[in-house]
Design goal:
Number of helices: 15
Strand content: under 5%
Helix content: 55-70%
Largest sheet: none
Order of helices and strands: HHHHHHHHHHHHHHH
Structural class: mainly alpha
Number of strands: 0
Distance between the termini: 18 Å
Shape: globular
């Protein structure tokens, strides 16, 4: 099982790097089509892995702590972004400062890149509630009730979508049927071929493609992991285990990336600027998390340690 999680950590490392990349304004301006293509699979892939990893074999107190460790950072960062949106051009920001408007951003519509944490909270609570209350039902019955619950939530709430619910549900199905990650996503370099072929079909980006691409992507990355030097496995594994603080703090670095853009005027492709920003963001976020841990103030994020 340790090998399974090590492999998943490598995949999460790749995914968080893509998250940072698409949030770099300069990269998006240079490659708008590529940015749109990346959006078709990287967050669906994250949702599938999340559904697979969530452990509902916990007591109510333990699961409440798990949700709190997501909700508190989410609420703090959404509040911060909402306040910044009054002075900076933040998409879907506040038009006026009021308790009602701020509450709406936290519990209903969100702001900034933190909608993924909202999905984790909503689907996680539904997952735990259905499988705990229906523990005497068959697995098929619980999965069916869970599907109804998350699709109803996707209809009633403006943020989670049906596609998000489906990918999370697929991860839960794999977990509940005890299907090993390596068997679900068999390692092969040839998976990159259908992945690239489908990714080039722009007409499919808003349809079913997000359901298919993660499977090919995971199979190819599993092959990459098997052929990775041990030192790189250690590095990428550490990054993959700590995607939460990176996800929380990376907007700070993508926001300031425009100020040192002039340093990279020699590179018209923008690749050097993008790679530098991704590496800086990862290292910077890990340093911030380490500082919080060292100063014993990580409890403001409802956890003793931000780094794992």
């Amino acid at each position: 099982m340790k090998k399974t999680y090590n492999e998943i950590d490598f995949i999460r490392c790749v995914l968080i790097a893509i998250v940072i990349m698409v949030h770099i304004v300069h990269f998006g301006n240079l490659y708008p089509l590529l940015k749109s293509a990346l959006f078709t699979f990287f967050m669906p892939a994250f949702l599938l892995i999340t559904g697979y990893l969530v452990n509902i074999e916990k007591t109510l107190a333990e699961f409440t702590k798990y949700i709190a460790r997501i909700f508190v950072p989410y609420a703090l960062m959404v509040t911060t972004f909402s306040l910044l949106s009054l002075y900076l051009p933040v998409r879907d920001g506040l038009e006026e400062l009021s308790l009602q408007a701020l509450t709406d951003k936290i519990f209903i519509s969100s702001v900034g890149p933190y909608w993924f944490l909202y999905d984790m909270i909503v689907y996680g609570i539904a997952y735990y509630a259905v499988f705990t209350l229906g523990r005497r039902l068959s697995l098929a019955s619980r999965l069916s009730l869970f599907a109804i619950a998350i699709y109803l939530l996707s209809y009633l709430l403006p943020l989670p979508g049906y596609g998000d619910a489906t990918l999370y549900f697929i991860g839960v199905v794999l977990r509940q049927n005890r299907i090993e990650f390596q068997k679900a996503f068999c390692s092969t370099p040839f998976a990159i071929l259908p992945f690239l072929l489908l990714l080039c079909q722009q007409s499919l980006w808003s349809k079913w493609l997000c359901m298919v691409l993660p499977f090919f992507f995971f199979s190819f990355l599993s092959w990459c992991y098997c052929n990775l030097p041990s030192s790189w496995k250690t590095i990428t594994g550490y990054v993959g285990r700590n995607t939460l603080p990176i996800y929380l703090f990376h907007p700070l670095f993508t926001l300031v990336s425009k100020f040192y853009l002039v340093w990279f005027n020699f590179d018209e492709t923008g690749i050097c600027h993008t790679l530098f920003t991704v590496v800086l963001s990862v290292l910077g976020c890990l340093c911030i998390a380490m500082l919080f841990d060292k100063c014993h103030i990580s409890h403001i994020f409802a956890t003793k340690r931000l780094l794992r």
